[in-house]
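Hey team,

Filing this mostly as a record. A colleague (T.K.) asked me to run one chain through the structure pipeline before their review meeting, and I want the input and output archived in the tracker in case anyone asks later how it was produced. No errors, nothing strange. Just documentation.

Input sequence:
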Amino acid sequence: MRASFHILLFTAFLLTVPLFYGMGQERKDSLILEGATQISLTRQGQLLVATDKSSLFLLDSLGKVQYQFSPRRPARVHLLEGWNGLRLFAFYRDFQEFIFLDRFLLADGTLSLDPEKTGYARLMAPSQDGNLWVLDESSFQLKKIDPQSQKTIFSTPLDLVLSGKQYDLSFMREYQNQLYVADRQGKVLMFDQMGNFKKKLPLENCEWLAFHGEEVYAVEQDSLAFFHPFFLRKRKLALPPQVKGTTRFLLSGNQIFWIQKDGLHRMNAPDWMKNH
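Output structure:
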């Protein structure tokens, strides 16, 4: 009887070990939002996320959903910009529409582009001066337009910038009064506030880009490549194994976020990444 009692106690102890061990361990990675396709960071450290079901979510710095927005007419979001936390932006290429939302993801409604004024917008992004950048595929020009009248303020032909080569312009974003355009078939293009082409940055074949301080960064194969556009310095950090295969990766404080086929993931940044 005593031996059987001891065996039962030992068995109960073994059953509790995984439980307490699991409670004391943090998962190395976690899927926090299924179906996520686009992601953007606000100045306040929140995450603006679009899903394949056309919904927009605003998440806190740890990935907890705070607000949600669902459009009346579902459509894929092709570009998302949350840096101006009081004026969040989403562009729907298929419908040639865009929308501005406040910090609670409330909006008056989507706005349609007039093709006679703007042409066909392949990409669209907000500017800090309140206007909009448009990459007009029909005329192959970079334009800045007034969002209300949709009149072109100025335009820049892209033939000379991308002449004689294949290109696939996939993302653009204004940051610190400069516009950056990602080319999946080439390098990142940099323009000033007036749309004048300045230089090509040595970030190769990137689909998407983000910023860390004064550096622009993007995924290059299995590394995260950083480039300072004014000091012309480039450096690389190896990506954690869980992150390999992503094209959309964000550093946010001590957290890292990335998108894979199943959605948005989050984990604590490795120490070697926090120190850089």
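Quick notes for T.K.: The radius of gyration is 22 Å. The longest strand covers residues 169-175.
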